[in-house]
Design a protein that fits this description.
This protein is α+β, with helices and mostly antiparallel strands. Among the domains are: about 140-245, Butyryl-CoA Dehydrogenase, subunit A, domain 2, CATH 2.40.110; about 250-395, Up-down Bundle (Butyryl-CoA Dehydrogenase, subunit A, domain 3). It is about 45% helix and about 15% strand. It has helices spanning about 5-25, 30-35, 40-45, 65-80, 85-90, 90-95, 95-100, 125-135, 250-285, 300-325, 330-355, 365-375, 385-395; strands at about 140-145, 160-165, 165-180, 185-190, 200-205, 210-215, 230-240, 245, 290, 290-295. The strands form three sheets. A four-stranded mixed sheet has the order 1-4-5-8. A four-stranded antiparallel sheet has the order 2-3-7-6, with no helix packed on it. Helix 9 (about 250-285) runs parallel beside helix 11 (about 330-355) and helix 11 (about 330-355) runs antiparallel to helix 12 (about 365-375). Its EC number is 1.3.8.7. It comes from Micromonospora purpureochromogenes. InterPro entries: Acyl-CoA_dehydrogenase, Acyl-CoA_DH_CS, Acyl-CoA_Oxase/DH_mid-dom, Acyl-CoA_Oxase/DH_mid-dom_sf, AcylCo_DH-like_C, AcylCo_DH/oxidase_C, AcylCoA_DH/ox_N, AcylCoA_DH/ox_N_sf. Its cofactor is FAD.
């Protein structure tokens, strides 16, 4: 039995499939044109327990672990959703974990840290103000790390936060921020020393705070239903109580949660590949040329067989690595390899799937066309393929 094929997870798949069929498929094309998904979709997903999968019940989640989150991600795409939909609906998967961890949620309870002078930290207050409402579908959060002059080099962040009494004064800018247009709050990486020092902290900044502006909505190659924005901070005063964890611990917090983000992207990649194999197989069975179905030709059958093999091999490896991460193993190198393996398989499969669809595959009416566009970001987000190769090389002792 697969690690994601228990009776409980089969029920989770059925729940997810029903949600996609009922709430997503009739509207996805319209959301792509609108450039975002409606806020009501978050509330609907929360009501049936999908939004909180992978988050502890102690912070308002539905319970489960990384493997349960993988099941939801995989089934959404396999049921006809998209990685763009995942990005839009589950942005809290990267916006909330730092708050949950700082409050002790990962160990099943809310623990308090301390500020200097013995003052109790309010990490549990952040859970009440941001985590619970987001998992209930009434708020939307985003994570802001990438800046106009840097992305993967997190230590080089230049957005500053200068302490001024009970507040930080934040100045800087962020870009490529997923859900940045719709977000009610942004978990923001800031430098709490001089710019580029690597001394980072995480602040939760509310939309509407004076000096915080959402710039232009960015138009993209893919992920059309996922809004993306530029953010600007000019003398934004943020209460110290909105800091996540201790000062200058942000870099470690960001690094610790990269594994889950990268495995989510890897899951989106192999699931997209699997879905495209299904679409291409169905097309080749139904499409006839010169009096015969495409699937009757050896060349086509072998191409489909190769696509299927790549997708299934990627899925198996990602599941193996995810199981080790869920068990608490420090498998940084393996996570990087899993992401690259899945992305490479996805790139090859979506290209072949569109080719097999011929002219129809190039039209917006074709589901495979959306997957072709959406797939391109997966080798960039969460750390580029090249950065993953650097991590892998380091793990080899190079």
């Amino acid at each position: 039995m697969s690690i994601v094929d228990s009776p409980e997870r089969r029920q989770l798949r059925e729940l997810t499939r029903a949600f996609v069929t009922r709430e997503v498929l009739p509207h996805l094309a319209d959301w792509e044109r609108a450039g975002e998904v409606p806020r009501e979709l978050h509330a609907t997903a929360a009501k049936i327990g999908l939004l909180g999968v992978g988050f502890p019940e102690s912070v308002g989640g539905s319970g489960g672990d990384l493997l349960d989150s993988i099941v939801v991600t995989e089934e959404i795409i396999r049921s006809g959703g998209s990685s763009g939909l995942i990005a839009a609906l589950f942005t809290h998967g990267i916006a909330l974990p730092h708050m949950v961890a700082a409050a002790g949620g990962q160990s099943g309870g809310l623990l308090r840290g301390r500020l200097g002078g013995g003052q109790l930290r309010g990490d549990d207050d952040l859970v009440d103000r941001y985590v619970r409402p987001t998992l209930a579908g009434t708020m939307i959060g985003a994570l802001a790390i990438t800046e106009p002059d840097g992305g993967s080099d997190v230590a080089a962040i230049r957005t500053t936060a200068r302490r001024d009494g009970d507040h930080y004064v934040v100045n800087g800018s962020k870009t490529y921020i997923t859900s940045g247009v719709r977000a009610d709050f942004v978990t923001t990486a800031v430098c709490t020393d001089f710019p580029g020092s690597g001394e980072l902290s995480l602040l939760v900044i509310d939309k509407g705070t004076p000096g915080f502006t959402v710039g232009r909505r960015l138009e993209k190659l893919g992920w059309h239903c996922s809004d993306t924005a530029e953010l600007s901070f000019v003398d934004v005063r943020v209460p110290v109580t909105n800091r996540i964890g201790e000062e200058n611990t942000g870099f470690l917090a960001i690094m610790q949660h990269f594994a889950a983000e990268r495995l989510s992207l890897a899951t989106q990649a192999y699931a997209t590949a699997q879905r495209c194999v299904e679409l291409a197989t169905r097309w080749c069975r139904d499409r006839a040329t010169f009096g015969r179905p495409l699937a009757s030709r050896q060349l086509i059958r072998h191409r489909l067989a190769e696509m299927h093999t790549r997708a299934e091999a990627a899925r198996a490896y990602v599941h193996e690595v995810a199981a080790r991460v869920a068990a608490g193993e420090p498998v940084v190198t393996e996570v990087a390899m899993a992401k690259n393996v899945a992305v490479a398989a996805c790139d090859q499969v979506v290209d072949q799937a569109l080719q097999l669809h011929g002219g129809f595959g190039y039209l917006r009416d074709a589901e495979v066309e959306r997957h072709y566009r959406d797939a391109r970001i997966l080798g960039i987000g969460g750390g580029t393929t090249e950065i993953m190769n650097e991590i892998i090389a380091k793990g080899m002792g190079l």
